[in-house]
Amino acid sequence: MNRLSMRTLSLGTFAFLSLAMLAPSSSKAREIVPLSGYSAGTIIVKTSQRRLYYVIGEDKAIRYPVGVGRAGMAWSGTAYIQGKYIRPAWSPPDMIKRENRRIPNVIPSGSSANPMGAAAMTLSGGGEYAIHGTNSPGSIGGFVSHGCIRMYNGDIMDLYDRVSLGTKVVVLP
User: Fold this and answer.
1) Number of compact structural domains in the chain
2) Quick check: is 7 in a domain?
3) Most buried of the four, 15, 35, 65, 133, by CB within 10 Å?
């Protein structure tokens, strides 16, 4: 290889490694932690921590970083997984339509404007809330939604594979 090729290769390698280090890594964000007081198979969302826990048993859970409801839009209580969807289209609830009248009635699957990301699991209690992926990974860890729980796309796919319809979801302040 000549010098120019080596320099180009070195710059390309440096750029790739730099971007790889800066990109959020959902697999590294996910970890097994102690958590007691809940049955295996339960999802716990600790809003103040911006963390979701999936209880795997023996006082252990998988912890995921999440984005949660912003001020005045966060909620707490118990719900159940009511639906599971891969790359769903999204219809904004009336509250969101009132805030932004220009938003379409349906945003198709795969659109960069679709806030559902790779998958969504709807929650019982009226169909307004879901645990879903996101096309805005920078929103994870913040108070950012209208009440939904946002996850990295890799994390929602991991959780999606672990849970079934009827899974209990406990959302704490």
Assistant:
1) 1
2) no
3) 133
